[in-house]
Design goal:
Elements: E1 16-17, E2 20-21, H1 45-48, E3 56-59, H2 64-79, H3 84-104, E4 109-117, E5 120-127, H4 147-154, E6 157-163, E7 166-174
Antiparallel strand pairs: 1-2, 3-4, 4-5, 5-7, 6-7
Helix pairs in contact: 2-3, 3-4
Length: 178
């Protein structure tokens, strides 16, 4: 969890192929597939979709942050059996990215995807705005504007990929695969 992250991918947006970003959800160099989901599909994923299998579209309103948090927790804890602390941090960070998409883009919907490859998880929030988020200095008494500061401090990497129609804001966190 290092210094000023967030510039990865901005100059040259990553091309997309299929439903997963390049290098994600594909076998590693040694041919090992990513860990399979554990157990039955958690309640809720069957209602809105599973952001691990493909992008889930959610309405751009404050209540959608709760749905995104629940989806993230369900996948990380129930499907992938990851640590509660990692899930807690990821839930907080997805809430911040969703909050930015809802507050600052004027879009009707946004997309959520959660990807995994050996040693990493990646959470993406896609919206139709090409306006870039800005990491601002945070003061002790600030009551807002802390979202990207938290993303920067709690994730291992984060960034923005510009798309032909919008952007994807993402963060990645290391995981200890067993």
């Amino acid at each position: 969890m290092g210094g000023m992250a967030g510039l990865e991918g901005m100059e040259q947006p990553r091309p997309r192929a299929g439903t997963a970003a390049t290098g994600w959800e594909t076998p590693d160099a040694d041919g090992a597939a990513p860990p399979a989901p554990v157990g039955p599909v958690p309640v809720g994923l069957d209602l809105v979709g599973d952001p691990h299998l493909g992008e889930v579209r959610l309405p751009s309103r404050p209540q959608s942050a709760r749905t995104a948090r629940r989806l993230t927790a369900a996948i990380l804890l129930k499907q992938w059996s990851l640590s509660p602390q990692l899930a807690e941090h990821s839930v907080l960070l997805v809430s911040e990215l969703v909050g930015n998409a809802v507050r600052h883009t004027g879009a009707r919907t946004f997309g959520l995807r959660i990807l995994r490859r050996r040693g990493w998880i990646r959470v993406e929030v896609r919206d139709p705005s090409r306006g870039l988020p800005c990491l601002m200095p945070v003061q002790a008494m600030d009551v807002s504007g802390r979202g990207l500061f938290l993303v920067d401090k709690l994730s291992d990497r984060w960034g923005v990929d510009l798309l032909p129609r919008g952007k994807t804001t993402w963060f990645e966190v290391r995981v200890n695969d067993r």
